[in-house]
UniProtKB/TrEMBL annotation:
Location of the region described as Disordered in the Swiss-Prot/TrEMBL record: 94-132, 153-179
GO molecular function, one term: dihydrolipoyllysine-residue succinyltransferase activity
Annotated function: E2 component of the 2-oxoglutarate dehydrogenase (OGDH) complex which catalyzes the second step in the conversion of 2-oxoglutarate to succinyl-CoA and CO(2).
Listed cofactors: (R)-lipoate
Protein name per its UniProtKB record: Dihydrolipoyllysine-residue succinyltransferase component of 2-oxoglutarate dehydrogenase complex
UniProt cross-references to SUPFAM superfamilies, sorted A to Z: CoA-dependent acyltransferases, Peripheral subunit-binding domain of 2-oxo acid dehydrogenase complex, Single hybrid motif
Organism: Oryzomonas sagensis
Pro residues compositional bias, start-end: 158-170
One family name in Pfam for this protein: Biotin_lipoyl
Bound cofactor: record note: Binds 1 lipoyl cofactor covalently.
Length: 431
């Protein structure tokens, strides 16, 4: 049974074979994850369609066209193994060894990003317990290992360099006649060690297809749009009070936690109704106004930033927004995100606050003309009714394409989002 790179979309013509989860000649079970491939849009796993013995023909790190055969599964060898197993006294002749593809045999299954971090941090892969599919090591496993390592106390003292002992002078000879110690013996790096040290300071690797595509799109945005950013800030006191009041009831009724994102999704939908140009896009010499609201939610994954789409967000209730976002996160972790999850979108929301960002200028996701940036919530002194009070505040940023969105519309849109966030009762009545 041949293993081929599957077709994942009309625009995807090649893929990078990133990782083999199984070794050449190893037995595999049906539906077991065999390898991970990366395209310029998504990352996905290829599973075994049958049980048998794996034969690998394409090594990790190879870019191949869609439809290429990268290996096969011998179902007959699995059947023979099952038939021979009951007759334990009769030893079967060992099969000829199969040469595995060029790879580090001591390395535990891990993603390319995790392997790079382990090399940079000097961590032995055998010391990290992988919790990903097939026991592979994820970045979360690695960061947990680094945190535990940092708590183990001070590092062992570095031993002093070996200095050749100078023989004592013969008895009766003056100490001054003893030969001086070689100059290189004290604090000097041997010349043969210098090239190794220089090599460890740099590492060159090819861009992954996803990272290459991200780079191309970001450069294109700067070159092809007239991007501008306007800022405002919102008081999240009312939203936080509502979450505290209804948190347990919401989770018990819908099975998900109530976060901030549903409020911002609904606020953006209402503001887009008021300012339709922010929900529009340019197609040649035409402006296309969208009378639906497909909101992209920027999510940072192990391979890079992806933007899955909430279809018809104007029809979704709060719990449906949370469930959809949770589903996207699970798909990203298990490499089940499809191109259909990413296609389209009329507006995007990016939450840099989850990483601690205080303020930023988000970049447009073409052909969309607007993107809202959320940031970290911080308690700050503000003036309310002539009094200085402490409030949980968040900076908001709207980047927009100035070719079709005027400053008045951009400022009005962001001001509308701020008002809905600070007085969310109307959103609750709608959602």
């Amino acid at each position: 049974m041949e293993i081929r790179v599957p077709e994942v979309g009309e625009s995807v013509r090649e893929a990078l074979l990133a990782t083999w989860f199984k070794k050449n000649g190893e037995s595999v079970k049906k539906d077991e994850a065999l390898c991970e491939i990366e395209t310029d849009k998504i990352t996905l796993d290829i599973n075994a369609d049958a049980a048998g013995v794996l034969s690998i023909t394409v090594a990790e790190g190879t870019t191949i066209p869609v439809g290429t055969v990268i290996g096969s599964i011998d179902e007959q060898q699995a059947a023979v193994a099952v038939a021979v197993e009951p007759s334990a006294p009769v030893a079967a002749a060992p099969a000829a060894p199969v040469q595995p593809p060029a790879a580090d045999p001591a390395a535990a299954p891990s993603s390319p990003a995790a392997r790079r971090e382990m090399r940079e941090q000097g961590i032995d892969p055998a010391s990290v317990v992988g919790t990903g599919k097939g026991g592979r090591i994820t970045l979360d496993d690695l960061f947990s290992g680094i945190a535990e390592k940092s708590q183990q106390g001070a590092a062992a003292p570095i031993p002093a360099p070996d200095v050749p002992a100078v023989p004592a002078p013969p008895q009766g000879m003056a100490a001054a006649s003893a030969p001086p110690a070689p100059a290189e013996a004290v604090g000097t790096v041997h010349s043969e060690e210098a090239p190794l040290y220089a090599a460890e300071r740099e590492e060159r690797r090819a861009m992954s297809p996803i990272r290459k595509r991200i780079a191309e799109r970001l450069v294109a945005v700067r070159r092809e749009t007239a991007m501008l950013t306007t800022f405002n800030e919102a008081d999240l006191s009312h939203i936080m009070a509502l979450r505290d009041k209804y948190r347990d009831h919401f989770q018990k009724r819908h099975g998900v936690k109530l976060g901030f994102m549903p409020f911002f999704v609904k606020a953006c939908v209402e503001a887009l109704r008021e300012f339709p140009s922010v929900n529009a896009s340019i197609d040649g010499d035409d402006i296309v106004y969208h009378h639906y609201y497909d909101i992209g939610i920027a999510v940072g994954g192990e391979k890079g930033l992806v933007v899955p789409i909430l279809r018809n967000a104007e029809r979704l209730h709060f719990h449906e927004v949370e469930q959809a976002i949770g589903g996207f996160s699970e798909k990203i972790k298990t490499n089940r995100l499809t191109i259909s999850d990413l296609e389209g979108g009329t507006f995007t929301i990016s939450n840099g606050g989850v990483y601690g960002s205080m303020l930023s200028t988000p970049i447009l996701n073409p052909p969309q003309s607007g993107v809202l940036g959320m940031h970290a919530i911080q308690e700050r002194p503000v003036v309310r009714d002539g009094q200085i009070v402490i409030r949980p505040m968040m900076f908001l940023a709207l980047s927009y394409d100035h070719r079709i969105i005027d400053g008045r519309e951009a400022v009005g849109f962001l001001k509308s989002v701020k008002e809905y966030i600070e007085d969310p009762e109307e959103l609750l009545l709608e959602g």
